[in-house]
Amino acid sequence: MSDLGSEELEEEGETDLGEYEGERNEAGERHGHGRARLPNGDTYEGSYEHGKRHGQGIYKFKNGARYTGEYVKNKKHGQGIFIYPDGSRYEGEWVDDLRQGHGVYYYVNNDTYTGEWFAHQRHGQGTYFYAETGSKYVGTWVNGQQEGAAEIIHLNHRYQGKFSNKNPMGPGKYVFDIGCEQHGEYRVTDAEEEEESVITAVPKWKALKITELALWTPTLAEEPPPADVPGQEEAPAAEARGELGEEAQPLADLSDGEADFMRPGEEDADNFREEGEYGREEFRFDNIDQQGNVGFEEDDPRQSDPPD
């Protein structure tokens, strides 16, 4: 599902006057509180300043979308809520008509993203909650994609490590609620050939050892911070017990100590897919299955038709 929502919905400019009822200044400009019906069928009620939407207002699109919040010189700027035609909504900060700052996006499939935005994309620290599985991704986003240090939390285990181009990459560990950890790394061991001879590298999990639980640092630092500072990120314990040689025997639900990581299909590498005027896209990762496979897959963005 696309959290780009319906930014293609452009509001009428100050030159598209339409019908207006409300206050004006001495120059005859719309100034103060007023109500307008625009030539394209949209309506606006709220504050004006020198002929432009400025201050608090409610803009209703003829297709059912609605923005309630702050304007600065005809642009959404400040705090605001945008409800899109498909029923999804964004609540948070806006800058020059773009979602930017901190905000929460509620998707029609009940997924949510809470965190930082930049230029309409998830960017910075944020948490994506997957309603269907109860899992969530907590970590860094870059231009709408999972990138950098992160933690993926499932119902009875979690993965902690780093992501690159939406894939887990490099050292990491699986932490199990039964009280142990499986350390290892995702390595690009081979490649898969897709249509039109496109070669795609496939990261695979290589288990190295099993230890007792240790505190996690998202930066995977080698030296732990001072122990007397509560809430700080800490490195894994110095020398955990339970090493099983060069390659540890995996836990029961990670057979052979290796889990295949599946790349999302049909998704653009630079940003999330936009489909039509009100396109939606959604993605999720799967839990480790009985064979030990770990997969991140993208749902069909049209598995439910938008109400718009």
From TrEMBL:
Instruction: Please tell me the species this chain comes from.
Output: Myotis davidii
Which InterPro entries does the record associate with it?
MORN
Q: Which residues cross the membrane?
A: none
Record note on quaternary structure: Component of the axonemal radial spoke 1 (RS1) and 2 (RS2) complexes, at least composed of spoke head proteins RSPH1, RSPH3, RSPH9 and the cilia-specific component RSPH4A or sperm-specific component RSPH6A, spoke stalk proteins RSPH14, DNAJB13, DYDC1, ROPN1L and NME5, and the RS1 complex-specific anchor protein IQUB. Interacts with RSPH3B. Interacts with RSPH4A. Interacts with RSPH6A.
Give me the Gene Ontology terms describing cellular component: motile cilium; nucleus
Gene3D superfamilies reported in the protein's UniProt record: Histone H3 K4-specific methyltransferase SET7/9 N-terminal domain
Record's compositionally biased regions (Basic and acidic residues):
21-31, 260-287
Q: Where is the composition biased (Acidic residues)?
A: 1-20
Keyword tRNA processing attached? no
The record describes the protein's role as: Functions as part of axonemal radial spoke complexes that play an important part in the motility of sperm and cilia.
Q: What are its GO biological-process terms?
A: axoneme assembly; meiotic cell cycle; spermatid development
Query: Which Pfam families would you find in this protein's record?
Result: MORN
Region Disordered: start-end pairs: 1-52, 221-308
Could you list this entry's UniProt keywords, alphabetically sorted: Cell projection, Cilium, Cytoplasm, Cytoskeleton, Flagellum, Meiosis, Repeat
- Protein name as catalogued: Radial spoke head 1 homolog
Superkingdom field? Eukaryota
List where in the cell it is found: Cytoplasm, Cytoskeleton, Flagellum axoneme
What SMART domains does the annotation carry? MORN
Against SUPFAM superfamilies, the record matches this protein to: Histone H3 K4-specific methyltransferase SET7/9 N-terminal domain
